[in-house]
Amino acid sequence: MRLQIEKLVGGGRGLARYNGQVVFVPHVLPGEIVEVDLLPPPHRTQPPDYLEGTVRQILEPALERRVPPCPLFGICGGCQLQHLTREAQCRYKREVLMDALARIGKLTGILVQPTVASPADFGYRCRVRFAVKHGQMGFYAYHTHRIVPVSECPILTSALNTLLKDIQGNLPLYTLSEVELQAATASGAPHMEEVLVILRGKQFPAGVAKAFYETRRPLLCGMVIETDRGRQTWGRTTLTYSGMPRPLRVRHNAFVQINLEVNRLIIACLMSQICKEDRVLEFYSGSGNITLPLSQHADSVTAIERCRHAVADARANLKGVTNVILRCAPVEQAIPTLKGPYTVAVLDPPREGVPSNVLTALARLRPQRIFYLSCDPATLARDLARLCKDGYTCTSVWPFDMFPQTAHVEALATLEAYPRGSHA
Fold first, then answer.
1. pLDDT tens digits for range 274-290
2. d(Cα 399, Cα 98) in Å, to the nearest integer?
3. What pTM was estimated for this model as a whole?
4. Which overall architecture, per CATH, does domain 127-241 show?
5. Cα separation of 196 and 213, whole Å?
């Protein structure tokens, strides 16, 4: 069928209408006239309230369309926006954020700043996971679990691409289900990267892994295999990320942002709003990515994190720092025991957001300001709406292009408490 695309929505899909019914189409742009093949509806007890299609032909392309730099775009499901110019990608991410705030959160009048662009739109990703099936290693195809073999990915750092080709050409992959690669600047060599490789599967010959590690140093700083028989390691199982107030050590099974330059921009934006008198409560503090700079800008920090591996890293990263209290516990368990007073709360939750009971308890603690860092506009809008019902107003939201070429949106929201006794 022939359709006109109205706008882009979450996930980078285009929205069109056919006989009044919504049709979602990937890899298109607003204003384009496209010829589309409809996909069969999924098997459900109720008919779907929308249709999905794939592009057969772009009949009238938009001015912002460009030739995707990667030949696998449209086949591989890793990127959704390579056909869109860099400036238009940033604008799209701001619009998706604004739409979520209005449609899901019913929040209007919020100042949504222009998207802060990534310094690099390719070669920025320092961590990646590849799926492996039947000896093929790559990413999943769009909306399937079919492997698209990938020999080079333009959003990865050069060292990760080097190891990717080496692994595909020299390791037996048929027993593996996943290969993870992690990179950081080598200590003492600011222009070199070092890589940690994690192999996961039912089994893998330890001698092969050991030989691969030993013949590829110093680029390969560590090797880990996790199989049904347990875990074996060679070299280091941690990487140290520079560019922070102090180097940040993170072990292989703890979280770290994949775009380090944008991570620094987010931290700088947040720290510009913290003062020396602030007593900070931080939830989902991880390995100390935000805790460490907070300790240098605030009077005190109480940081809560449930992952014991991340807390162990944070203790090492904060060695000698005296104004931080680290607690290893789920925030749901920790928050009833907190007394305060706190002037600032910093939230950096996973994609599913913050449980409603935690937000309610946080509002009772009444920090003057709340900073909420989110990787999902939908859960951000939901949680901001809950906080606004509990006596806060959202004064601004900063979108950041943490994941160029993809539809993912990172955002930092600022909330301020109303004076006690007043209403929104």
1. 999 999 999 999 999 99
2. 10
3. 0.93
4. Beta Barrel (2.40)
5. 10
